[in-house]
# Entry
Amino acid sequence: MKRGAANAAVREAPRFLNAYYDDNAVVWVARDRGGSVVLKRMPVRSTVFFAAADVDTSTKHMLRNDSRVTAMRVDGQWLRVEFRDRHFAESVCEAFEKRGIKTYEGTVSPIRCLAADHDVQVARPRRAYLDLETDSRVPFSRKEEMRILCWSLADEHGVATSEILLDDDDAAERVLLGELWAKLDAVDQVLAWNGDRFDFPVLLARTKRCGLTPNHKRILWLDHLELFKRMNTMAAESGDEKTSYALNSIAMAVLGEGKDAFDASKTWQAWSTPECLNGLCMVCSSCMRRYCEKDTVLLHRLEVETGYVELLQTLCEACGTFPDSRGINPTNQAENMLLRIARKRGHRFRTRFLSNVAEGRQYKGAFVMEPQSKGVLTNVHVCDFKSLYPSIILSWNISSETRVVEPLRPMYLKTRPARQSNECEAATGTRFRTDVEGILPHAIAEVLRLREHWSRLKDSFPPGTHQWKDADRRSTAYKIAANSFYGIAGSPMSRFYDRDVAEAVTQCGVYLIKQTADKARNAGFFVEYIDTDGAFVMGCSRDEFELFVACCNAELYPKLLVACGCKENNIKLAYEKQFGRLVFVGAKKYAGSFVHYKGKDATADSKPEVKGLEYKRGDSSRLARRLQSEIVGSIIVRGEGADESLAIVDKWRRHVLVDPIDITDVSVAKTLSKPLTGYTRKVKKDGNDAKLPAHVEIALLLRARGRDVGEGAKVAYYCVDGSVSPKAYKPAEDWTGDCDRYDQWETFVWPPTKRLLESAFPEHDWSVWDKVRPRRQRTTRTKSVKHVGQLSMLGK
# Structure
């Protein structure tokens, strides 16, 4: 296909389902009106931009005569150069940067560049949910060697179809997979739980082994587990939903119904038993097939309940990102949107190389003030800024290209030049132009405008209708996108990272919240705590605090921003909530009961707000979460005192030490933050290797058993002996009831609640509950009477 025809092909098709690389071509995937898949190929071209004024005639001549340069033309103020090879284009950028010639967007992928150039729109894919059952005799570490015994595919209506392997040979597996790929011909997007780590690589490896050659690149492979983790992190009410991301655990938490009672570790035995003994024996191939189908139906039901896949689709449509596992990343979403907006304004971004992402000093972050008081606080009012960082970016017009680069001045000139009328100054001293709208503020303004549009549209529809849900998803998607723009400016891994921009945003936030706190103190209020974009205040009534917030918006912020030279003011403080009772354990850690939230009074059914405590964390034991939850209910919800807490603690201590407990009560699950090879043992002073963290040691043991313990995997374990050093742990799968109950109380269950109680009732000595392990009885030989007396005194 000629270049002009290829470009026209992209322009003619308003929407595409996907795009991928195939040899030296980019292939765009779409469906025609009849539903048939259409593939449009374009040559891979890596584009590098130069400021036309920076490139002299001899350099242009050199580039034009290079065989690896396919095209070069002047595009406004830019010189656009296209290369055949992406790696060569990056090396050219590095060479020019060393010569002092700036390059732009040299590391942007060809697909992303083309999509931005032609404003490619994302089409809605045909969706299916996949699950595989494989040979259980092969360990996970060799998952690509697992023969596929059964597959199930559920469509967008939750209707599942499945097939099972007929014979234990490659020919039968080829037939089985051929039937699956025939079904996938009608699908554009495939979801599987833990798909990136298991189902997708296994399917592709076995497909290749069987000699099949379907076009798997055209399909959007989306890991449903990773999407759920991303979307559910803030929505989870307690740590119970974060302890395990196994499908059964999530389905039970969200749907109230889990998987079938089938032992997935014995799939080979089940496949080898074709006859079902009683219709639901759970040890035969028929039951395995039903189990496989149930998994895909659960995936569909999870989507119906949460709407996370549809939310991702809306985000991707807004940002121009394809909805696969890579499209989950908010950095990719925001970068795509910025590139598109910049194209329309004729702007290009500097080339950024991975080799220098860590260069430069860390910028100053947000201000967090430690809580000022202990005990149970009452009538605490909370105000916070509405979309603080986006509002700051808009008000100060903060963007890389609007930043004023001041010329170097002689050492004897200690004063800066006066700020110009078209400049505003951030709290860091960095100045930004105000006579031209920045790319970053423009993007945020557009996203917020769209969010407001869909919010108004949502209010016009009857609640719960299809139109209402669609508008709600779009409003939420634009809110997520707006909040991610600061993240890409402040992340060293982003191509839009700018330290001065990121620090200007955070320090303007610090300036505003400190000015707000000072005004509250001047009004006679007591500022208990400050957290990034909000303040917790006591010593006033609800009406007085409402008046204070209104005064800040009407007088304080307009005055501050005018003094900084800002041309517009988007800063708005909101009276968010009031706590009737509140206990701070530390910064970003508290529990409180509502009096009202955003103007709506709390009811008897209103749940307390818990932030940062172990109750909300997935790496704490369930016993710890249960005890802390009951203490929060006693202190915060019912307003009870220390005596009631003492009774609760005593009851739970007896339960931990005496009552029957299960592995789900005592296991702790921690996530591997990197591959196991990335963990190294430190050498102790005696020359021996130190132990790795407990979850890493357990992960090494599980890897030897062939388990899935790659980066991001959760490793569940429990302590069997805490009296030795180092402590002895076992994987949760080895549970036999041999838990060290004393260590469970002293290490896992009691400390989180102790910190809460010490904060709520600091006048009490809670350390008396610290130790429950009986002292070891030492046998001693005959000693003098005097020495025995000394031992008796020590025992007391």
